[in-house]
Design a protein that fits this description.
With 355 residues, this protein is mainly alpha-helical. Helix content is 53%, strand content 4%. A three-stranded antiparallel beta sheet has the order 1-3-2. The two termini are 21 Å apart.
Length: 355
């Protein structure tokens, strides 16, 4: 089971309130919207409207994670409660850990200890670590411990329940060569003409030498890809989305080719280094978070969520919004092809970072 970013926020908020303030639980609709949008104990901070919360509740009910308590029988208003503990078989301590990870993204052991203190009694760090290990060792793990990232002092835990969780280390794609790049002596005149001006010494070549095996398709693909690389989206934000796609698809070639393009567009090495952690990582601007979240939503749900679309509408005009969706879709297509054909990186091109 995977939850969208909105579903994760809604069910995480319900679980947190059930543990922290049981006297005010279950929650009314207004209280639930406010719980999702509160500025403390949330990362990222969002601004969901009622329709966004309703859509998330519909998804959670379909997944057996939330229920409605209708007005009547002593209730003056309709209220909402989670059943995540029932659906996943969680005790109160395990529920607290999962809820905090849903609300705050990847966290260190010390961060989890501090943020779950008011929700459950873990009898010291040993108890908390024991619960984390138990959740990680389930047949379908609810906790993943990631390798320590460069620049960080401690490793972090995340939950694979939320769709923006980074892909665990070691999950790689097919990289055995299946469709070889054409050598100079293997091309016909049509293929040489199509590649004229495309391939430069020391630059990207294997992708083009592979795809030109289908000249008719190559001829029509190149102008479209070129338009997206020179369109209306700011280059830095375009490359942020492309690199996130490369990571989500575990496309080593795509990632390696766009790291230098991203640097040239204004992404710092530190920013590139936290793209695998997605929107949950600390340090992003609100727009960056929105782009990463929208990219993840397209990857997992094939649709940008209402909240992300509303935030994008505050920054981008209609053509830019259309273009962002097309960029994400196009580089999924490219990643699919690169992974499936086994296109090999050129010498000196970086591979995927550790998960």
């Amino acid at each position: 089971m995977q939850l969208s970013a909105e579903e994760a926020r809604v069910v995480g908020s319900l679980a947190e309130k059930a543990l922290a303030t049981p006297q005010y639980y279950p929650l009314t609709h207004n209280a639930l919207v406010n719980a999702c949008n509160q500025s403390n104990n949330r990362d990222p901070v969002v601004s969901y409207d009622a329709a966004t919360v309703d859509a998330a509740l519909d998804g959670l009910r379909a997944k057996g994670m939330a229920r409605i308590i209708h007005a009547g029988g002593g209730n003056r208003t309709t209220k909402y409660r989670h059943v995540m503990d029932e659906a996943l078989g969680l005790d109160p301590r395990e529920l607290a850990l999962v809820a905090v990870l849903l609300l705050r993204g990847p966290q260190t052991l010390n961060e989890l200890r501090a943020r779950t203190e008011r929700l459950a009694d873990f009898d010291g760090s040993g108890g908390l670590e024991h619960d984390l290990e138990r959740l990680a060792e389930r047949d379908e793990p609810l906790i993943v411990l990631h390798e320590r990232e460069p620049g960080r002092r401690e490793p972090r835990y995340s939950t694979p329940l939320v769709s923006t969780t980074p892909i665990p280390a070691g999950k790689t794609r097919h990289r055995t060569l299946r469709v070889a790049a054409l050598g100079d002596d293997e091309m016909d005149e049509q293929q040489r003409e199509l590649l004229r001006g495309v391939i430069v010494p020391g630059g990207t070549s294997n992708i083009f030498r592979t795809l030109v095996r289908h000249p008719g398709l190559f001829r029509r693909w190149m102008p479209f890809g070129g338009k997206l690389l020179n369109g209306k989206l700011p280059a830095r934000e375009r490359e942020l989305a492309i690199l996130r796609v490369g990571w989500l698809c575990q496309s080593e070639y795509e990632w390696g080719q766009h790291v230098p393009i991203g640097r040239a567009a204004g992404l710092t090495d530190e920013e590139i280094g936290r793209i695998p952690s997605g929107a949950a990582a600390h340090g992003w601007s609100e727009l960056d978070r929105t782009i990463l979240t929208a990219t993840d939503e397209l990857h997992t749900d094939a649709c940008v969520g209402d909240a992300s679309w509303a935030r994008l509408s505050e920054e981008y005009d209609e053509k830019q919004r259309i273009e962002l969706v097309m960029v994400v879709g196009h580089y999924h297509l490219v990643s699919f092809a690169l992974n499936s054909f086994g296109v090999q990186r050129e010498e000196g091109v970086v591979g995927l970072p550790e998960g």
